[in-house]
Amino acid sequence: MNKLIMNFLVTEGYVDAAEKFRLESGTEPDIDLATITDRMAVKMAVQSGNVQDAIEKINDLNPEILDTNPELYFHLQQQKLIELIRMGKIEEALEFAQDELAPRGEENPAFLEEIEKTVALLAFDDVKNSPYGGLLDMSQRMKTASEVNAAILTSQSHEKDPKLPSLLKMLIWAQNQLDEKAVYPRINDLSTAKLEEPAV
After folding, report:
1. pLDDT for the residue 35
2. Which residues pair with 195 in a beta bridge?
């Protein structure tokens, strides 16, 4: 159980909690805790809209991450374009789209569709309420930050998703399957994990 908790803390980037948990439980993480701080700095840069800083930090961590993952690099560049549009730097956004993103769209049709949606934001006076205004939502930054986080974890030979949520989902699924076939002590409150006897 301690290893599952440590895995969750490390994967999600809770470095202070992981360090305290390591001291209290004696459970050693399977990754250097210092790398968590670096990974979270990259994630925070993306979430705050500072994409160029995030790219530089990724390259400082491991330059091969972006070299070997063209889709991630494209999504970072797309996010950079979104940030330029958000700041109202229209000319700079058009130039960036033409110089940096258009060549990638020629290489990959899926990228081209995403470029078109992003550049379409420029056609609207009220960008946030346009058909593609969702690209300006915080959820778009979070999506890109999660993709970056997963790529860094993979480059460090660590799972990109914590195991604990998956195990809880499997527990719920197994209980739902059993409900149809048997009467058994069940965990109704996942926070306490207390087994409750079935009503007779």
Report:
1. 83
2. 187
pLDDT at 108: 87
| pLDDT at res. 200 | 65
Ramachandran assignment for 189, one of left (phi > 0), alpha (psi -120 to 50 degrees), beta (any other): beta
**Cβ atoms of 45 and 54 closer than 8 Å:** yes
Per-residue pLDDT tens digits for 131-167: 999 999 999 999 999 999 999 988 887 777 777 778 8
130 and 106 part of one domain: yes
Please indicate, yes or no, whether residues 42 and 125 belong to a single structural domain of this protein: yes
Supply the range of the domain harboring residue 110. Answer: 31-155
* Separation of alpha carbons 184 and 197, rounded Å: 7
| Ramachandran sector of residue 119 (left: φ over 0; alpha: ψ -120 to 50; beta: rest) | alpha
Tokens of 54: 């995030």
* Structural domains in the chain (count): 2
Structure tokens at 9: 């803390």
Q: Bridge-partner residues for 186, per DSSP?
A: 196
54 and 36 in one domain? yes
